[in-house]
Amino acid sequence: YSQATNAVSSWNRYKFAICMRFHSLVLSILNDVPAIPIAYGHKTFSLAEKCGLNDYLLVWNTYQSEYFGKTIDISASQILEKVDLLCNSIDSAKTEMLKNKCSLIGSASAAFIQLEKILEQTYRSELKGVWISCNNIVRYETDDAYYEFRRIKEY
């Protein structure tokens, strides 16, 4: 994709995705697209576990032993095995993801509310700007810049 917005808006067209990056896994979860996560760090690994994709998860960190205490390599055949496994159980994988999606979104929303409170307490008195809170978006504006935080829709 030449633009990220095209990738995001078309993600739900896929039958499944192979996700090596954290945010691609997030897109899969939000669009109900079962995934084969290839984790090279703890964020992707943890998210894959929390959304019920353990059976399809691969760990690959050939160059970064600090994440798992050792380097781990994977082969193309291991990836293809996971593809076969997922294709043969796509409905149950999707059901498992959907089951866990609500709690993940709820957790993210709770974290966002905490962030809002911290920002308000910390910066409202110190910074001279305008706070706007509307449609699950909190925006802080000054003459020079603005910061925007979006809350994920709660289910």
Q: Helix and strand succession?
A: HEHEHEHHEEE
How large, in whole angstroms, is the Cα Rg? 19 Å
Question: Strand arrangement, largest sheet?
Answer: 1-2-3
Distance between the termini: 29 Å
Shape assignment = globular
Number of strands: 6
Question: How much helicity do the residues have?
Answer: 40-55%
Q: In what range is the share of β-strand residues?
A: 15-25%
Uncertain runs are: none
The SS-based structural class is alpha/beta
What's the pLDDT, averaged over the residues? 78
Count of DSSP-assigned helices: 5
Could you walk me through the main structural features you see in this protein, from its secondary elements to its overall organization?
The protein has 155 residues and is of the alpha/beta class. It is 46% helix and 16% strand. The protein contains 5 helices and 6 strands; from the N terminus they run H-E-H-E-H-E-H-H-E-E-E. The protein has a 3-stranded parallel sheet, sandwiched between helices. A 3-stranded antiparallel sheet has the order 4-5-6, with no helix packed on it. Helix 2 runs parallel beside helix 3. The radius of gyration is 19 Å and the shape is globular. The relative contact order is 0.11. The model has no long low-confidence stretch (mean pLDDT 78).
